[in-house]
TrEMBL record:
InterPro entries, alphabetized: G6P_DH, G6P_DH_AS, G6P_DH_C, G6P_DH_NAD-bd, NAD(P)-bd_dom_sf
Protein name from the UniProt record: Glucose-6-phosphate 1-dehydrogenase
Glucose-6-phosphate dehydrogenase NAD-binding domain boundaries: 10-184
Residues at the active site: H237 (proton acceptor)
Residues engaged in binding NADP(+): R46, K145
């Protein structure tokens, strides 16, 4: 589908997201000849810079994030010719004269406003776009996470942005939904007949979803201290992955059909009580330790840290989806920083065989597992039991692996490449709707309230481990283990 001519205006155009993700993504799409000849990118920042000075900054800050395997000087030069720097104060309505002058008045050109800014600015920027005449029926606005701090602020953002732009013009971005493996999860579930009869409580024991990072907070302490792991990762990324695993088959792949089914999942999540909050939610904070053999400080010793901070860097939760398909199946969600490994994966664990016909006892048979790995090596792994070579009938676990990079030689899109293309095409399937966002906050908010009221601090865990022991106990009470704890020693 060819793209119409567009002007992409990036608020926060000098920021980290723009340099690391957005502009490199636009380079890749330019290299693939997806961009129209006259497409333009306007990078908006507060500092008074000439266009040449800004392009020099791009060369230093954005270009290193483009793989040398795909870097072509001619393509980079072509992209730079599309880019114009606009110096303005996004909070000052008078400053928008500069943006009006920079953008084309042609009604056939699609105007896209990407708000890579703190959410506190979303409403003000949208009002200023409206008062300056830039918020037209042919424009779109992209909202980066976090979309609010709680249900009330999320509703406020939705209401205020909704006064300016219609729902079909608002793209609430979650980059995990742009990952290739998430797309393949949809293909796996709804493009094959193999798993659908088994994708239910009768055959599935439990579901685990993990997003673990070896990194600490780095230079993001100001943001992270006001966010924490629950707002930063669980309320959006983890819940979106849960929705795709648990949703019913949509009637089509159209945006509202898919988002209708995700909304049903969010509304079906078991609600917390004071008792279940204490039993089924674990929060932790990393202390000093070793990651890959390198000593690292604890969270409270990081640069600019509050030495008494109670901000969580780890969350583990047990929940259930109260539907006919999933009743009684536990879903375990886990995310943390300074963990033993960097990975994002979904584990679908099936129930054990009911009876062994072999000489081996049932207890020696491992459950079949389908592992959907999102990063670092995207692929599917199916764990089965198979006979060992030689005399006798002895079974052991084996793994069938589908590595997407090896199976498909075509160049792969990064998440932001796909999502930016969908914004420019006006395709909303991979973006959250307002009611979906609010349903996620509604489910998460009792956890935030509970943490505000209780006196206990987050449970400390050593950097370079898999989090607090309480997270292992959370799943261990059900006779289960996190996947890495169940892996045999090598």
């Amino acid at each position: 589908m060819a793209l119409a001519e567009f002007d992409l205006a990036i608020f926060g155009g000098t920021g980290d997201l723009s340099m690391r993700k957005l502009l490199p993504a636009m380079y890749s799409r330019d290299r693939a000849n997806d961009l129209p000849p006259n497409a333009r990118i306007l990078c908006i920042g507060r500092h008074e810079l000439s266009n040449d000075a800004f392009l020099q900054q791009l060369d230093k800050d954005a270009r290193p994030h483009i793989s040398m395997e795909i870097f072509e000087p001619a393509v980079w030069e072509r992209l730079c010719k599309r880019i114009q720097y606009v110096a303005m104060d996004a909070t000052d309505a008078k400053s928008y004269k500069a943006l009006v002058a920079a953008m084309r008045p042609d009604p056939t050109v699609t105007n896209v406003f990407y708000l890579a800014t703190p959410p506190a600015l979303f409403s003000k920027i949208c009002r200023n776009l409206s008062s300056s005449g830039l918020a037209t029926p042919n424009s779109r606005v992209v909202l980066e996470k976090p979309l609010g701090r709680d249900l009330a602020s999320a509703k406020q953002i939705n209401a205020e942005v909704g006064k300016i732009f219609s729902e079909s013009q608002i793209f609430r971005i979650d980059h995990y939904l742009g990952k290739e493996t998430v797309q393949n999860l949809l293909a796996l579930r709804f493009g094959n007949v193999l798993f659908e009869p088994l994708w239910r409580r009768e055959w599935i024991s439990d579901v685990q979803i993990t997003i673990a990072e070896e990194l600490g907070v780095g230079n993001r302490m100001g943001y992270y201290e006001s966010s924490g792991a629950l707002r930063d990762m669980l309320q959006n990324h983890l819940l979106q992955l849960l929705c795709i695993v648990a949703m019913e088959p949509p009637v089509s792949i159209t945006s509202d059909a898919v988002r209708d089914e995700k909304l049903k999942v969010l509304r079906s999540l078991k609600r917390f009580t004071p008792v279940s909050l204490a039993q089924n939610v674990v929060r932790g904070q990393y202390r000093a330790g070793h990651v890959n053999g390198i000593a690292v400080p604890g969270y409270r010793k990081e640069q600019d840290a509050d030495p008494h901070s109670r901000t969580e860097t780890f969350v583990a939760i047990k929940t259930e989806v109260d539907t006919w398909r999933w009743a009684g199946v536990p879903f375990y969600l886990r995310t943390g920083k300074r963990m033993a490994d960097s990975l994002a994966e979904i584990v679908i664990r099936f129930k054990k065989i009911p009876h062994s016909i072999f000489t081996q006892p049932n207890s020696s048979f491992e459950s079949n597992c389908l592992v959907i790995r999102l990063q670092p090596d995207e692929g599917l792994h199916l764990n089965l039991m198979a006979k060992t070579p030689g005399d006798g009938m002895r079974l052991k676990p084996v793994e069938l692996e589908l590595n997407f990079r090896e199976s498909f030689k075509a160049p792969r899109m990064e998440a932001y490449e796909r999502l930016l293309l969908d914004v420019l095409r006006g395709q909303l399937t991979l973006f959250m709707r307002s009611d979906e966002l609010e349903a996620a906050w509604e489910w998460v908010e009792p956890i935030l309230d509970y943490w505000e009221q209780e006196e206990n601090e987050p449970i400390p865990y050593s950097a370079g481990t898999w989090g607090p022991a309480a997270a292992s106990a959370l799943i261990g009470r059900d006779g289960l283990q996190w996947r890495e704890e169940a892996l045999p020693e090598v």
